[in-house]
Structure formats: C-alpha cells, structure tokens
Amino acid sequence: MKKNFIKDLQTPVQFIKGIGPKRAEAFSKKSINTVYDLLYYFPFDYFDLTEVSKISDLKKISDLSKDVSIIGKVRSIDLTGRPPRRQCVIILGDDSGVIPLIFFQNINYFKTAYKVGDMLAVSGRLTYFMSKLQLVHPRIDRIDISEDVSEANLINTKGLIPKYSMCEEFRNARITDTALRKIMYNVVSEYVPIVEDFLPEYIIKENSLLPLQDALRKVHFPKTVVEKNSARLRLKFDEWFLFQLMLALRRRFMKVQLPGISFNIKSRLARQLVDSLPFKLTKAQIKVIKEIAEDMKSPKPMNRLLQGDVGSGKTIVALISMLIAVDNNYQVAFMAPTEILAEQHYRTIMQFLNGLNLNVRLLLGGQKKSLKENLLEEIKSGTANIVIGTHALIQEKIEFANLGLVIIDEQHRFGVEQRAELMKKAKESIKIQPDVLVMTATPIPRTLSLTVYGDLDVSVIDELPKDRKPVRTLLYSESESDKLYNFIREIIQKGQQVYIIYPLIEESEKMDLKAAVESYERFKKEIFPDLSIGLIHGRMPAEERDQVMKAFKENKINILVSTTVIEVGIDIPNATMMVIEHAERFGLSQLHQLRGRVGRGSEQSYCVLVAPNWLVSKVRRKNSRLDFAYARNFNNNNELEEQKATIRIQAMLSSNDGFKISEIDLKLRGPGDFFGTRQSGMPEFNIANVLEDGNLITLARKSAFKLVETDPQLRKDEHRLIRKIFLERMKDKFDLIQVG
Ligand code: ADP
Ligand code: MG
Q: Given the CA of residue 308, which atom of ligand 1 is nearest to it?
C-alpha cells in the first residue's frame, strides 16, 4: 500500500511516482535524496528543438557552423568499410527525406543502441561527404512513442530538452534520459506549486528576477531560450545572494561588532625606513600605504587585501605597516606559505631594517629545539617585535604577548581557517581584534575578488617601479639548444647572470631532480666548463641552499640551475635571463611568477621558454588561438592537455600583465582548481559560475549588503525565509560568525 505522505519538499524521492527503492538508491549516489534535491538537480545543457528542420530542407542551409535539429525514424543500421575506416551508419528519415548519421567511435554501441523504427531527435553540425549531406556523431535523444502523445510526452519533442548529468548507477537502475525527464516533469508539476519564494518582493523587483516557482519550472522545461536564460539567471542569483550574504555578515561582524586597535600612524620607524630607501616609492605604493594607514588609524579592525603583480613592491608596503605597529608597541606576525618564502622575507626585511634596532625573528617547522624554545619565550614575553614564519606560527604552543598586526602572504595558498587561527592568537593576546593585511601576487578580476575575497577591502598596486623594462619573452624548441647556449653566453659576457629552471612535479620528483642534476653536471663539464655554475633544489639542506644563493647574489656564480624552489621571493637584479626548461609542464601563474624573478634591474631582461618541437611549431603556425570553448570540446584528454599547454605558452608570449595572465589561467583551470575551492572558502556552486556571472555577482552583492545594513539580524518578517534558508544551507560555512 502506498503511504500517504504530506506533500513536502523533504519527501524522500523513493515515494515519487516512477521511483522505487532501487532507483532511489541510484539517486542517492548523486546526493539526491529528497524532492527538494531533485528540483535542484538542474540540466547541464539543453537539446535545442525549438526549430526542427525537415530533412529535405537541410540542403538549403548555407551556414554549416550552426547546429541543426531533426526528428525522424530509424530506417536502417549498418556497419560499413574495413578497419580502420569502419563505421556505423544509421539512416534516419522523416516524411520529406533521409540522411545518414555516421559514427566512427564506439561503433558497437551504436550498432545496438537503437532499433529500426525508433523515433530519434538528433542535433549536430552538417557536413558534406562526396557532396552528400551527413551528420557525424550527432547528439541523439530517443523519443518515446510508446505512450499517447500526452503533454508529458512532448517534453521530448518540443522546445528545449533538458540534459541531466548521468552516471553508471543511473544506468544500472534504468534511469535513462527519457525516464529522468519524465520523473522531473512529474516532480516539477506536483511540487513546484508548494515552493515558497524566500526572496522578498522588493529584491525580486530590483533585480528583475523571475519568481522562484517560475524559475524552477523553466529551468527544467523551458519553451524558449529566453525562458531558459531568465530561469537560470534567477537561480544563479539565489546562489550568489546567499554567498554574498555570508560575506556581508562576516564583514559586519568584524567591522561593527568587534572593537579593534586605533594605531597612531605617525611612526618614527616608518619615516626612517622611507628616508633610507635607495628608491622613491611609486604612486601606487603611496596610495595603498595611505589606505592601509587609514585602516590602522581607525578603531575598526583592518581586513584588507593587497594585490599587486610580481615585482610591484608589496614587501616594502607591508614593512611600513609593520613598523607602524611596532612603534605602537604591538607585535607583528608575518605568515608565508613556504619556508623558502619565509626565509626570503626574513632576509629582505633584515636588510631594509639594517640600522633600526628591532628584534625580527624567523619561525619555521623543523628548527632545533633549543632555538625554538628561545624563540617561543621571546614571542611570549614580547621581546620579539616581528615574527616571520610559516604555518609554524599557528601551532598550539605559540603564545604572543600583544599581537596587533597579522600579515599573510600569498593568501590564496592559505585557507580561511588558517587566517582565522592566526587572528585568534592575536585576539587571545590583546583581547580585541587585530588588524589583518593579506597579500597576493595573483591579481584577479574585480568580480572574482568580490567573491573570493569578498569580505575584505581591496588595495591594488597597479604600477611597476619606473625604471623597469618589460621582460622580453622568447620561445625556443628543444632542438635549438645551440642557439640557446650562445644566447646565454652573450648575457654572461655582459656581466649578467642566468637562471635555468627545471620543473619539479610532485609525482615524479625524483626523476625531475635527476634531470636538473644531470644538466648541471653537463653544463659544468661540457657546455660551459669555463663558467661558474650553481645548483639548488628543495632536497638540499637549507644552509647549503643559502650558501649557493649568497654566491649567486654576489655574482660568484654565472648560471644557477634550479628546480622551482626558486619560484618565489628571490630578488637579484643582476640576473637578467630566466630559462625555463619543459615550459609546457608549468602552470601559467607559475610561469609568470618565474618570469617575475628577472627584469628587476634597469637592464633588458629575457625569459626563454623551452618547449617540445610539436608545441613550438604549433605556436609558430599560429595554430593555437586562445579558444577555450574549442579546447573544451576535445574528447581526447591528451589532445586537450596539449592544447592547454599551447595556450599557456601563447599567453606568456603575448602578455606581461599579471591580470591578463591570471584571467587566462583561471579559465584554463577552472575556479575550483585555481583557488583550491575548499581552501579559499568558496562553496561548490550548483548553477552559479564565477567565470560567467560577473554582473550578476555585483547585483547579488549589492542586494545582500544592503539587506545586512538594514536588517543585520535578519529579523524582519519579510526576511524570515532568507534567514531560514541561509542557516540551512550556509551553516557549515559560517562558523566564523554567528547570526545574532
Ligand atoms: P613583490 O610585489 O613581488 O613582492 P617586492 O616587494 O619583492 O615585489 O619588490 C621587488 C623589487 O623591487 C625589490 O627589489 C624591491 O626592493 C624593489 N622595489 C620596491 N619598490 C620599489 C620602487 N618604488 N622603486 C624601485 N624599486 C622598488
Ligand atoms: Mg613578494
């Protein structure tokens, strides 16, 4: 007997018509457990049958770049040709004519997938073969004609047909495309009428959104492209809105509810530092220093992001803010993602502070016990003014005396939690909120920073120091090594120095290391026996590495062979050439970072990318447009990777601009990979897409921030449902704050 469940969105899917226990289990594999989950299982694409062509009309179509749709019956299915040219040919006919559908891949599947007499809806691009029209590997949907032509049946033959992502479990439980569409159709018609819209009328109006019921109906079964788009827009908006609401609340919590330090920004130390600099600060540096100083002066806690391309001079800006804090008798913690970077910051800062009587300490993971105990004591007693370190800074046993300023470098490599940990340490020591400055050398488009760093104020250094000549980037193939070696000699004859970088990819660390070491030996013995060659890699003891770096800095080494440990921080103006071996194996941001290691003095610098012959000839044939849609269409993974590598190299050759580079990198890798979704605190979105939704993000942000301003506790009656949904969906991401 069927249970009489209350019509509720929390109804388990098992009790839906057409779903039994077996199918319910398959659904649960996709985290679909309730009616609500099913309603929010949106199509990833649509099969466009808004305009169905008659087969006889196809030959009139002159624009072959557009997809066509036809509906017809299978007349015959045959295998023709001999391997490797074997193919499956399905002849499809309607009452006006016939057309062959051609399949080269999965021939055996297509041979049996359909039967003569099946009604198929087909879409794809027309091609000519021996002056006859055909469709090669079209998309196919079987149309169910076993039932009456009821309205439900039309979901397969009219308008836009939803395509849902499928999986093995679905197939095993006989949840086919057609079956799922039918289930969806039932669920949508039965349950959408009881969905309550959580957005108040005024937000819907302001943003010209569809009501939620409409949107849910039309996202699954749009009749037109316009309907589809406006439905998706509304549902994307919802996701952005809730996300921005979280950011707004978090920000309000930090800014308004917590008191912070009001620093006196007339700092003697900062003044002394600026006066002793061998260069003038750029306009952009001065601008961001002012922004930071204003924040520090204000009793509201600072939460600021400092963005700037490699070499734009962020370190000095951070240092000035540190000195302000120290002058106010507060400690500063400066956290960097790797030991090498922490060491580099330590060295740079010590140099800048030469002559100022400050106690700057370096805290790393594997330090000797006696040294560490000493350090911990100085941190606890407050005699350490500035502590630079890695994650080691957030270890439990570390206690600060009065940590007033927290600086985090390369923010995107840390999680929101780690930022919070360090802030907690500060709070424990000073009992109020510290000021926080996070820095990143990965500039990102504004709409993006509104999401990833949406709870922060943003400062941008958008200018490089004046005397810089842009680095010239060149591409050499692996077979052009003679040319490369001559070039290297030219540079060294001018008294300048060269880096040669080898990739170090975790899985093959040993092999990569071997490549670097072997090349080093070869350079030393065979190619440049008259020059001085150095080698550094991550497996070397820190002291040894330091010695080599020091020798390179003092120009006692002409060529430094290195694995990517050199990526960050290194700053040697006399090194004017960066050679990157196996450039195709590096990520784009990484390549840009490496390039940023040269071009730091006033001489012309070069970045030489060395890549395999196939890639070089592709680039030289101008065969690699930055066409992401095109790249995404490859079935073959290898081909896709090759295309992506080519695009990365092309991007390096065509731009020196960190913003452009990171935008391309983001597109290539997708936001999840780019930011490390879990790390950055970005949720996994269902329908929202950070790369596509630019303007919508801004709108949702405006509405969310305004809402928090007018009703910070979400207590008004018209916001009751927002509050409910927010707590349900965002609770786990919201442990840093409480909604009152
Ligand atoms: P990044 O933003 O990549 O961290 P750094 O802070 O390492 O850049 O600065 C890069 C180099 O430029 C350093 O050698 C630094 O001393 C120098 N520098 C910083 N500001 C200026 C400036 N205004 N004029 C000239 N050189 C500068
Ligand atoms: Mg830096």
A: 2
pLDDT in tens, 586-606: 989 889 989 988 988 788 999
Could you tell me the distance, in angstroms and rounded to a whole number, from the CA of residue 315 to the centre of ligand 2? 6
Q: Hey, whose CA ends up nearest to atom 14 of ligand 1?
A: 571
Residue 406 clears pLDDT 90, i.e. is over it: yes
pLDDT cut 90: percent of the chain above it? 51
**What pTM value is reported for the model?**
0.73
Is residue 546 helix, strand or coil? helix
Ligand 2 centroid – CA 569 distance (Å)? 5
Instruction: Output the CA 326–ligand 2 centroid distance in Å.
Output: 21
Residue list, ligand 1 pocket, CB within 6 Å: 279-282, 285, 308, 310-316, 441, 465, 571, 600
Q: Tell me the CA–centroid distance for residue 336 and ligand 1, in Å.
A: 17
Query: Strand runs (DSSP E) across 125-177, as ranges?
Result: 126-129, 132-136, 139-143, 159-163
Alpha-helical runs (H) found in 415-479: 416-430, 446-452
**Going from the N-terminus, what domains does the chain have, and what CATH number goes with each?**
1-44+164-193 (1.10.150), 48-163 (2.40.50.140), 268-298+312-440 (3.40.50.300), 472-655 (3.40.50.300)
Contacts of 463 (CB under 8 A, 6+ apart): 282, 283, 284, 312
Instruction: Express each pLDDT in 712-739 by its tens digit.
Output: 889 999 999 999 888 877 765 554 444 4
Hey, whose CA ends up nearest to atom 15 of ligand 1?
313
Nearest ligand 1 atom to the CA of 596 is 3
pLDDT tens for 227-265 read 999 999 999 999 999 999 988 988 888 777 778 999 999
Closest atom of ligand 1 relative to the 280 alpha carbon: 23
Within 431-574, strands assigned E span 435-440, 457-461, 472-477, 497-502, 533-536, 559-563
Angle between helices 613-620 and 637-654 (to 10 degrees): 60
The alpha carbon of 474 and the centre of ligand 2 are apart by a number of angstroms equal to 25
